[in-house]
Write a structure and sequence with these properties.
The protein is an all-alpha fold and 269 residues long. The protein folds into 2 domains: 114 residues, no CATH class; 129 residues, no CATH class. Helix content is 61%, strand content 0%. The protein has 13 helices and no strands. Helix 10 runs parallel beside helix 13.
């Protein structure tokens, strides 16, 4: 086991807790994307991801991680922070919530209290606090969606988000509403892939899309089950993470129409 290089006193723990509060919105803890930069990926690069522990709470994991980092390493805290800050600048820009100078200043001051002097290095960073412009979807796509017979679950907030240029968010909202609709129809508390697998499973599905009296009707039922399971894995789960690459208006348009079709089949419209 590594030898401690610092004592973690009650005061140090309190300071690390303050550090966690500052760093919490910098990055996601983890991501399904293999290319996303997260707290876990940064700790993993330095082979200290075990320090984060396995708590189900992000702040608890960060507290564990930074306490161990400060306890056992003299220079590694510098390395971790050097990786965190530029990654946070990119992530927050992507989230349309740019990292603020006030946040960076608070980080510098807190690190000084922990005897980590990065005033010169972090103080030289120039932050752009302007919110990036939103890409507006082509007017033709907006009109086509508006003129399409959309179900209420799509024609409301998801459509408005699409029109406002929040493409990933519009798809995420549509998939969440579909999941809720399936829960209501099946009277189930299951979620995700398991919900779809159980709700539409032959031979006696909680939600039957037809009479199931012919092979074709059974094929439709089973095919729909696999499509909705795939939707959860390939769309719902992916778009639940804020670091997913922003989709184009054209691709978003296609996914919204696909979700609209899934709703229509579910409602027998």
């Amino acid at each position: 086991m590594a030898k401690a290089v610092r004592r973690i006193t009650a005061n140090t723990k309190a300071l690390i807790s303050e550090l966690v509060e500052i760093l919490y919105p910098f990055l996601p803890l983890s991501s399904r994307s293999k290319t996303a930069v997260t707290f876990i990926s940064i700790f993993k690069e330095s082979k200290v991801e075990k320090y984060l522990g396995n708590s189900s709470y992000k702040k608890a994991q960060l507290q564990n991680g930074f306490e161990s980092l400060f306890r056992y390493h003299k220079k590694l805290p510098f390395t971790i922070i050097r990786k965190l800050v530029p990654a946070a600048i990119d992530y927050r820009k992507f989230k349309r919530d740019p990292l603020k100078q006030e946040e960076l200043n608070s980080l510098i001051e807190l690190l000084m209290k922990l005897e980590i002097d990065m005033r010169e290095e972090l103080g030289s960073i120039v932050l752009d606090e302007n919110v990036p412009e939103i890409q507006v979807p082509p007017e033709e796509l907006v009109k086509r969606l508006e003129n399409h017979p959309l179900v209420p679950e799509i024609s409301s907030e998801p459509l408005q988000q699409f029109k406002n240029g929040h493409f990933n968010e519009s798809v995420r909202k549509a998939t969440e509403r579909f999941e809720v609709e399936v829960q209501l129809k099946s009277d189930s508390t299951d979620i995700g892939k398991q919900l779809m697998a159980r709700t539409f499973a032959l031979p006696t599905p909680p939600v039957a899309l037809n009479t199931l009296s012919t092979e074709n009707e059974k094929g439709i039922q089973e095919g729909y089950k696999f499509m909705t399971m795939g939707m959860i894995l390939a769309i719902r789960n992916i778009f639940s993470h804020g670091d997913e690459e922003q989709r184009s208006p054209e691709e978003t348009y296609e996914m919204l129409l696909f979700m609209n079709w899934l709703f229509r089949i579910l409602k027998n419209e």
